[in-house]
């Protein structure tokens, strides 16, 4: 259901004539949906715990119930409206407090058109302004949705790396080839290789070997297993390859490492 907005205030706000002698407006509870386009840089907007230096490349979208105040100076085009239910209410409620609008030059045009043509005595103007307000909400909603999607997509690579690390830690004795781990996180091997190295600074092969050696050092410290048992428990294909990999990383053979740990413990 679409409930048409009731425009309660539109225009241009400027703190110089409106708030003389103050550097900040007092905190107030928002009672309507407040959409504002800063017309110049300067000052800071505060909504709840979030703050943003004021600039001309974003729209402020304050919602009923929020607490806001502003460090001056502040000059903006504003559209304040009441919507109590329905699809439009949901769209406005889901808007982030600050929306980057650089990708849509039509939004500043709408703010200017509303601010310059508002006439409460003309029913025709009211219809036109309502149409502009609906277009404004639609465009802000579309931009916010796209930005949320881009943020989610941007976080996917690191999320995949985290899932891979968790999988590796729980499956050191399994097949941890690039193809197998990439399939586990639903990435192609080539793309996953780049993602994993970007997130960890290591290739998957180096990381897996590092984790297997780390577990081996723990088992060697306990001293209850043979080198062959440790090799297989840590996912190495043979005791000889385990010894080779261990010496390459730890700069000493496994037996020497175990002896050194025991001697250090006895001191």
Briefly characterize the structure.
The protein has 267 residues and is an alpha+beta fold.
- Spans of at least 5 consecutive residues with low confidence: none
Name the CATH homologous superfamily of the largest domain: Regulatory protein AraC
**Morphology:** elongated
**Strand order of the main beta sheet, please?**
1-8-3-6-9
Distance between the termini: 78 Å
> What level of helicity do the residues show?
40-55%
Notes on the structure:
It is built from ten helices and nine strands. The protein has 267 residues and is α+β, with helices and mostly antiparallel strands. The protein has three domains: 6-151, Regulatory protein AraC (Jelly Rolls, Sandwich), CATH 2.60.120; 156-202; 205-266, Orthogonal Bundle (Arc Repressor Mutant, subunit A), CATH 1.10.10. The chain has a five-stranded antiparallel beta sheet. The chain has a four-stranded antiparallel beta sheet with strand order 2-7-4-5, with no helix packed on it. A hairpin with a 2-residue loop joins strand 4 (44-47) and strand 5. Helix 7 crosses helix 9 (239-250). The longest helix is centred in the middle third of the chain and has 48 residues, at 123-170. The mean pLDDT is 87.
């Amino acid at each position: 259901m679409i409930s048409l907005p009731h425009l309660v205030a539109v225009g241009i706000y400027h703190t110089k004539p409106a708030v003389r002698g103050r550097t900040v407006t007092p905190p107030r509870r928002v009672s309507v949906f407040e959409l504002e386009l800063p017309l110049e840089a300067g000052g800071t907007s505060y909504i709840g715990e979030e703050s943003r230096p004021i600039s001309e490349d974003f729209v402020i979208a304050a919602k009923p119930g929020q607490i806001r105040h502003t460090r001056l100076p502040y000059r903006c085009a504003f559209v304040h409206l009441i919507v109590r239910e329905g699809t439009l209410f949901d769209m406005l409620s889901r808007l982030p407090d600050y929306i980057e609008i650089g990708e849509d030059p039509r939004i500043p045009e709408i703010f200017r058109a509303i601010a310059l043509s508002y006439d409460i005595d003309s029913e025709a103007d009211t219809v036109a302004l309502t149409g502009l307000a609906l277009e404004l909400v639609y465009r802000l909603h579309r931009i916010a949705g796209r930005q949320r999607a881009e943020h989610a997509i941007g976080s996917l690579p690191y999320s995949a790396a985290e899932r891979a690390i968790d999988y590796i830690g729980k499956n050191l004795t399994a097949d941890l080839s690039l193809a197998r781990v990439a399939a586990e996180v639903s990435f192609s091997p080539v793309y996953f290789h780049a993602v994993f190295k970007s997130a960890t600074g290591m290739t998957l092969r180096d990381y897996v070997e590092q984790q297997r050696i780390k577990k081996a050092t723990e088992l060697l410290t306990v001293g209850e297993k043979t080198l062959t048992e440790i090799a297989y428990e840590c996912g190495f294909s043979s005791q000889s390859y385990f010894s080779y990999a261990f010496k390459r990383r730890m700069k000493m053979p496994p037996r020497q490492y175990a002896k050194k740990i025991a001697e250090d413990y006895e001191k």
